[in-house]
Write a structure and sequence with these properties.
Elements lengths: L8 E6 L8 H14 L3 E6 L5 H10 L6 E5 L3 H4 L5 E2 L12
Parallel strand pairs: 1-2, 1-4, 2-3
Helix pairs in contact: 1-2
Length: 97
């Protein structure tokens, strides 16, 4: 449903795209892994003030096609697509995830 292939390794970010969550670190890490292993893909579920920055980073790194941005979606429909979940928050008091 999300357009991934059977052999893809999907790494997910689920949350608010804010400075606190450091979503740019997620983009840089997945882009770096994708450059070494082209089957690596990034799935971003959420929205926020850093979302446009995330899109710019993956475009600048030349791997925008390796990322899917769903906006706010029911995470339960996205969890089955993930091979790994990455939490890049700089700080969290009581994370929901």
């Amino acid at each position: 449903r999300l357009g991934f292939e059977d052999g893809d390794v999907v790494i997910g970010f689920v949350g608010r795209a804010s400075a606190q969550k450091d979503p740019l670190r997620f983009c840089q890490a997945v882009a770096s892994a994708h450059q070494r292993a082209p089957a690596v893909r990034g799935l971003v579920v959420g929205d926020g003030e850093r979302l446009d920055d995330m899109r710019r980073v993956v475009a600048r790194l030349g791997c925008a096609d390796a990322f899917k941005f769903t906006g706010w979606a029911d995470p339960s429909t996205c969890w089955p697509a993930l091979d790994l979940f990455m939490m890049t928050s700089r700080y969290e008091a009581m994370p929901y995830t």
